[in-house]
Design a protein that fits this description.
The complex is a heterodimer. Chain A has a single domain, classed as Four Helix Bundle (Hemerythrin (Met), subunit A). Chain A is built from ten helices and no strands. The longest helix of chain A has about 35 residues. The chains are: A mainly alpha, B mainly alpha. At the A-B interface, helix 3, helix 4, helix 5, helix 9 and helix 10 of A face helix 2 of B.
Chain lengths: ~260, ~80
């Protein structure tokens, strides 16, 4: 029985109702944190950071490009791990998190590709090139869209969840390729600016606002993931009594006849 | 730390790179904003439709159990 008690936290965490109520208390703080950091980082990066010696002002795109790319990649791992937990422990909440991560990841990958293209024009003289990094990011976008599409491709939610989770897991092969692409194939895309193993290859005055934007993007990701997961919880638990009581408590009377 | 541009006009132009930088910023912010607004709207719509449905069921139950004399709550 002791073993059963040790796993209590795990089962409670898997309860959609527990997730919904706990994150409900976090949401106001996350909104303030996200918007505050985002505003600070953007103003700092766009108006106060010194311009790059070689690239001039176009380098300021980095303050959106790098944070969005970071979260596009980290979000993919999160989605695949959520899918794996769903497959192994049949945890409903985990599948809901996986499904919620797909549109957010797709949007962030789109931002990474779009800002990269706009940055490429003044820097490389072209919007698009079939460079290893860029091509593998495009594949990431299709993986996200694939996971999303599989959710709606089956009549049974159960089958859709499993199919999405398997695609997400298989797709993780692509992530190390993206990370390493700038080193393996020395093509147009510049090597990473920030590495865990060494000091950033940019001036501190440029790096600090970038750090703020990266933290802001993590905060944004947490906020968006919670918001999407809560929608999914309401949708899948709409018949349960706690959701109906919540709806009746928070919504004014609507029936007019 | 000091401002890099003397006027809003300069900030907008960015010495010729303005169109690129601001396109990237505005499109990114539009996508990020959309990512947050969509679930907030869906959340509200879901709660409303669940509340409507529950109220309708409550009314139907009330009507079927006491169809002869409507109670105070039904009015």
């Amino acid at each position: 029985m002791a073993a059963g008690r040790n796993w209590n936290w795990f089962h409670r965490m898997g309860s959609p109702r527990w997730f919904y109520e706990t994150t409900g208390r976090w949401l106001p703080w996350l909104w303030v944190l996200t918007l505050g950091l985002m505003l600070t980082g953007l103003i700092w990066g766009l108006a106060y950071a010194p311009q790059d010696a070689k690239q001039g002002n176009s380098f300021r795109i980095i303050y959106l490009h790098v944070p969005a790319s970071f979260l596009a990649l980290a979000g993919y791992y999160l989605m695949a791990i959520a899918g794996a937990i769903g497959l192994i422990w049949k945890m409903k909440l985990s599948y809901m998190v996986m499904k919620s991560a797909a549109p957010i990841g797709a949007a962030l990958t789109f931002i990474a590709l779009f800002t990269g293209a706009v940055w490429g024009k003044p820097t490389w003289g072209t919007y698009w090139v079939w460079d290893a990094r860029i091509t593998s990011m495009l594949i990431l976008l299709f993986l996200y869209l694939g996971v999303l599409a599989l959710q709606y491709a089956f009549h049974s939610q159960e089958t859709g969840n499993k199919a999405s989770a398997i695609l997400a897991l298989v797709g993780t092969v692509n992530i190390p390729i993206i990370y390493k692409s700038v080193d393996w194939w020395y093509t147009l895309h510049q090597p990473a600016t920030i590495k865990f193993t060494s000091a950033p290859s940019m001036h501190m005055d440029m790096f600090q606002p970038l750090l703020v934007m990266i933290i802001a993007m993590y905060s944004f990701y947490g906020l968006a993931l919670i918001l999407y997961t809560r929608v999914e919880i309401l949708r899948r638990e709409r018949k349960s009594s706690w959701v109906r009581e919540l709806a009746l408590r928070t919504q004014p009377a609507q029936v007019d006849q | 730390m000091s401002p890099q541009f003397d006027s809003l006009k300069q900030l907008w132009d960015m010495a010729g790179h303005g169109p690129y930088v601001w396109t990237a910023v505005l499109v990114s912010l539009a996508v990020l904003g959309w990512l947050l607004i969509r679930p907030v709207q869906q959340h509200r719509d879901n709660l409303q439709s669940i509340a409507r449905q529950s109220q309708r069921q409550q009314l139907q139950q009330a009507a079927s159990t006491s169809s002869a004399e409507p109670s105070e709550e039904d009015k």
